[in-house]
Amino acid sequence: MPTTYCTAISLKRKLKNAQEALMSAEGAFVELDTRVSVELHELWVQQEKLALENRATDPKSMDIFEVQLEKGIYLLG
Fold it and tell me: Mean pLDDT throughout 58-76?
């Protein structure tokens, strides 16, 4: 039984961490939504719907969810 108890404690801790991460991510998305234009937001929604609709037949459609960052200049202080 100690193993079951330890597993339950571990799962409870993981659930708490996941819930905290979700709250943080939701806040970031709300902030992002308030900073972009309505047109850009609508474009993203359309791209998301299309990707999810086509994911079974065209896995490359899911590439829109990849983070795309421009490389910046790294300056040493």
Answer: 78
